[in-house]
Amino acid sequence: MTDSADPSGEPGIERALRRVVLGFRVVGATWLALLGAVVLATTESADPAVTLATVVLAAGWAAATVARGAQPGGLRSWWWLAADLAVASWTIAGPTVVAGQRTTFFGGFPFTAVVLAVWARGLTGGLIAAGALSAATLGRLGFVDGDATVPVSQAVENVVFYVVAAAVLAWTADVLRRNDRLRREAESALAQERAERIRSQERAETAAHLHDSVLQTLALIQRRTGDPAEVTVLARRQERELRTWLTGGAPAGDGGSFAAAVASAAEEVERLHGVRVEVVTVGDAPLDEGLAALVAAAREALVNAARHSRVDRVAVYAETSEDAATVFVRDRGVGFDPVAVDGDRRGIAESITGRLRRRGGHARVTSAPGAGTEVEMTVARRAP
Fold first, then answer.
1. In this predicted structure, what is the pLDDT of residue 222?
2. 10-28 burial string, b = 16+ CB within 10 Å, else e?
3. In the listed set 170, 188, 206, which residue is the last one of a domain according to the structure?
């Protein structure tokens, strides 16, 4: 996902782990420097030149690591890891081998080499680092007298620590990377599903609009072929509406009121279909997208009643409250069996039920042969 990777393509988890590695290196170098200062101040046998050289080497190498770590792949090469292990091994054994210094002051600096190797090369890199540091730790014992202040048991303890730390760090990094990969895959799948859902809704909205406008107008033209003037008016009106819709003009729910929109839809159906529509409205509200969808669904219900009920009068009752808006369209016509409606008929499924569902609403059609039809349509009001 783009939100978890920088322009170089490095995943966010790798960027975070790289910063942790660099943080460990800075802390390790600081730790070594503080211990070196204590050794110089309290240990007479310490060689000042070697101790200072080791502190400067660790500090300079830490600065170089931070500088090179600014590049996503700068610390992953084997030659860099080899140089890093050489510096870490020097902090363990160098002062003893060169100057016979018994007191150690490397602190946690060598451990940061294990951290870096695990991050860069996984368990293999971590075990190689642990092996190199263990060799330096055990090799140092050969340059220390039998009464050395660092006994063999402590050296073995350090060796075990390096090996166990490499294994634990590799396992932890693997878990973090795997979880991050799963998260990114889930986010990608979710984004894809959301995009597909939006496309599906757009297709459904387009189909509903074409059904309500173009197909309805074509049906009117087919029934009125004997009146060329009226056919021309219908065709021109539909052309204007279609052009406006295609260019994004006059978006649904842009201004006006709910009651006025219901009355306008009823008037249009009366004019085009020659039926009487009685409208009763209770309450009103500014026309938003949800209410506009409700008006469009109510218009489709009116058109269906005008075309199929075989009566000359249809009743509309519209009501708004703080929480919802509802429209009832009733006729006392021939009725029908909702279960028997063909699946390819979009008038109810898409232009009414589907349209309202996409806005969080619902519709209920009650009808039976010979008993008329009632369509109840509801959408929730959007909080102001």
1. 56
2. ebebbeebbeebbebbebb
3. 188
